[in-house]
Amino acid sequence: MSIDELYARAGVDGRRLRKAVSLLSDGRWWTLADVVRETATSRRTIEALMRVLPLEHRDQHVRIPTEQVKLYNISISSSISDPVSHLVDESVVERMAGLIAKAPRGRSALDHVSATPETVVRRALLLGARFWLPGSRLLCVGDHDLTSLAVRLIHPEAEVMVVDIDDRILAYIDEQNLGVTTRWADLRLGLPPSARGWGDLAITDPPYTPDGVGLFVARGLEGLRDRDEGRVLLAYGASERTPMLALKVQHALADLQLLNEAIYPDFNRYDGAEAIGSAADLYVLRPTTKSWPAVASRVDRLATAIYTQGPQAVESAKAAPPDLGDYAPDLLVGDWPRDLLPGVPRVRLSTWLAKPYAAQVSRVAVHAPGLDAALPRLVLAARDAEVRVFGTTSPVRLPPAPDAITSRILANSHGKVANTWREGLVAELGLTKNQARARIPAWAGATALELPLHRLTGLAEAVAASQREDAGLDEA
Q1: Considering the entire predicted model, what is its pTM?
Q2: Are 121 and 150 in contact (CB under 8 A)?
């Protein structure tokens, strides 16, 4: 096949091919990944193009030979103007590049692909250009890309909260001391109570499956306090070869009765995700009066298999239910077969985390396949009951409780940590409520089940520090 035949087959979408040829004939050396990202075109399409071009090679780089450039050189301007490109401060991009480079590596099982430093800076700039951020609140529904840090660097007047399943990311964000509030959440099991109705805006870059996009956007909607003027910003991309997949995702958004207020094509660029051109559009979604009943009726029905890879991928086979052996529980938590122990009460995992179980139970069987990050919280929610976890080989680690106050906080895992902590200080040290409150760090304004793991494992040390005579509010 010739280059002209490729152009003809692409039709009106042939601009992306001509853009790639323009890059390869500009005298610079290019990697395949760079051409994919610059043109927002899938790897397969660029590979097909390169097969028909007379390229010279240097290591992993290619270009059209100088003597043949005049046969292919095409001047192609940027296809769609970027509304904030003129606002980009390279010093901020450089700082974000350093933060991203030191961040925990992505996990393929969570569909992690890092956005470029310039992308997260441009996200922050677009938020400021489109919305009034002073005094506003931004909820990041997942934040492997560290958009929260870019927003705080550029718009320190805005409050930012991150909810994420990856405890490593939450710990890293807290280490930067940029004033971002962090909460742990497996969004399949619900949004943290302290994040519900908290934000004015939400932003998410979710797993690119219809259920993944639908779930993360629905959780973003649940996190809005302004139901009239709030917005959810969504990064979503699909290959130019798979329009039906993009249509399924847009159906998921339509099911939530959302208005596509704006779509910025190829706004997000990534280091990876070459199957979709290392790019994603940025949607600005506005809820309607019909969105809220749609969220209430649909969000808990979305599948737990929302990822494209790993044990919770859409294509993964459902695991057989585990054998209880001789364990005789008083309560079944999770997705157990209906015919198993029909006389034993059962609750959903999301309900178990959302509120304390009313009945007194002493033995609990938890079935949580693929939900390893949730295991410490699922066990913590059991209070004093014996818990046995099935369907996973991951160890369940809980923080020690060497003192009365820490024990009280962990026993009251569904209550706000700060309240239980304050009551403990008053009881143990005879402080006034105001004196006790001044000794409690700001991150304690959540339930124990919402705390990132590094906060949970460091709880006893923080409680001990609050009981010293020189204790004060020394950690935000």
Answers
A1: 0.88
A2: yes
DSSP sequence for 271-301: SS-GGGTTEEEEEEEEE-TTHHHHHHHHGGG
- Per-residue pLDDT reduced to its tens digit, 32-91: 999 999 898 999 999 999 999 999 999 999 999 988 888 887 777 665 668 898 999 999
3-state DSSP helix/strand/coil % of the chain, to nearest 5:
40, 15, 40
Q: What are phi and psi of 272, to 5 degrees?
A: 125, -160
d(CA 170, CA 142): 10
Evaluate whether 179 touches 153 at the Cβ level (below 8 Å).
no
CB of 284 closer than 8 Å to CB of 189:
no
* 114 contacts 145 by C-beta, under 8 angstroms: yes
Residue 226 structure tokens: 């302004």
- The CB density around residue 388, as the number of other CB atoms within 10 Å, is 14
**All domains of the chain in start order, with CATH:** 3-72 (1.10.10), 85-301 (3.40.50.150), 331-390 (no CATH), 404-466 (no CATH)
SS3 421: helix
List the structure tokens of 171: 């710990």
The three-state secondary structure class of 269 is strand
Element (H, E) at 433: helix 433-437
- Spatial contact of 239 and 280, defined as CB atoms under 8 Å apart: no
**Selection from 409, 396, 455 nearest residue 183 by Cα:** 455
48 C-beta neighbours (distance < 10 Å), count: 14
Q: How far apart are CA 18 and CA 3, in angstroms?
A: 10
Q: Reduce the secondary structure of 78-103 to three states and give it as a string.
A: CCCCCCCHHHCCHHHHHHHHHHHHHC
91 vs 417: CA distance, rounded Å = 39
Which strand (E) or helix (H) includes residue 231?
Answer: strand 231-236
Give the pLDDT score at 247: 95
> How far is the C-alpha of 269 from the C-alpha of 7, rounded, in Å?
25
**Residues 125/84, Cβ–Cβ less than 8 Å:** yes
What is the four-CA torsion angle of 160, 102, 235, 276, rounded to 10 degrees? 180
Quick: pLDDT tens for 127-138.
Answer: 999 999 999 999
Give pLDDT tens digits for 343-366: 999 999 999 999 888 778 899 999
Measured distance CA(268)–CA(120) in Å, rounded: 8
